[in-house]
Design goal:
Blueprint: H1 14-20, H2 34-49
Length: about 50
């Protein structure tokens, strides 16, 4: 059985899935983890999509 960190499709929740995605950003100037920024974007889109 593969872990969510090896295979994003094996994740059982959103945060595990986002943490398993590879971070392709340059290391220079990174202040926030990629999974956190993606989670905030998903929550903002969801909030404004509902009205």
């Amino acid at each position: 059985m593969t872990s969510p960190l090896e295979n994003p499709a094996a994740a059982t929740d959103l945060i595990s899935f986002l943490k398993a995605l590879p971070d392709c950003r340059l290391r220079r100037g990174i202040r926030y983890p990629q999974w956190w920024m993606l989670l905030m974007a998903i929550l903002a889109i969801n909030r404004f999509a509902q009205g």
